[in-house]
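Subject: Sanity check before I submit

Could someone independently write out the structure tokens for this chain? I want to compare against mine line by line before I put it in a report. The sequence has 94 residues.
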Amino acid sequence: MVKPMVVVGQLLKKIKELYHINTFTLCGGAEINAVFLKADLVDEISIVIGPVIDGNRNALTFVGTENTDGFPKYFKLKEVEKLDNNGVILRYIK
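---
Independent answer below. Compare away.
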């Protein structure tokens, strides 16, 4: 079985070589976010918080994986932006 981090590395190499893309936005789910974070491929995190409460115990998480080796990861607050709808964007850098 191929390890996800190996596949991600190959994918990024092909994207760079074929399309000359050096930076992109990852809008994944908890599992793919965990793979990129474990491989130290995340330079910045943007979290949008809206003033809504779901209340669902089964809500999705930003990062989730069965194997927590390589965690926690630490980031530093870069900026806070207030949105028109009373939400905020928190931007963190590595």
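---
OP: Matches mine. For the report I'm noting this point. The helical segments are 4-19, 30-38.
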